[in-house]
Amino acid sequence: MPSRDPLSDAEIDEALDDLPGWTYEDDKLKKTFEFSDFRAAISFIMRLSFYAEEMMHHPELENVYNTVSIALTTHDAGGKVTDMDVELASQIEDFVWV
After folding, report:
1. Are the CB atoms for 84 and 95 separated by under 8 Å?
2. Which residues pair with 25 in a beta bridge?
3. pTM of the entire structure?
4. In this structure, which topology does domain 9-95 adopt according to CATH?
5. Residue 59 class from Cβ within 10 Å (0-12 exposed, 13-18 middle, 19+ buried)?
6. Mean pLDDT, range 32-40, rounded to an integer
């Protein structure tokens, strides 16, 4: 299981190299995804829920019509980015367009 220890800025920068379109702001990994319509956006959220629940790591989500904005931070680590956030972001990238 990924660590819940906060990552350093250098470790976060290195992780972002493998996470296209993700940014680091306000102690969170963030990305907004755009889909063809509302149904596709909600389907993405449903798929994401299975990964998040399996990890017991739940993202902050915002949905407006065909867009889904995600913010990842580990509340148990004082609201800092940990390996858990990087792992979930990586899993999202693996399934998002499947």
Report:
1. no
2. 28
3. 0.93
4. Gyrase A; domain 2 (3.30.1360)
5. buried
6. 97
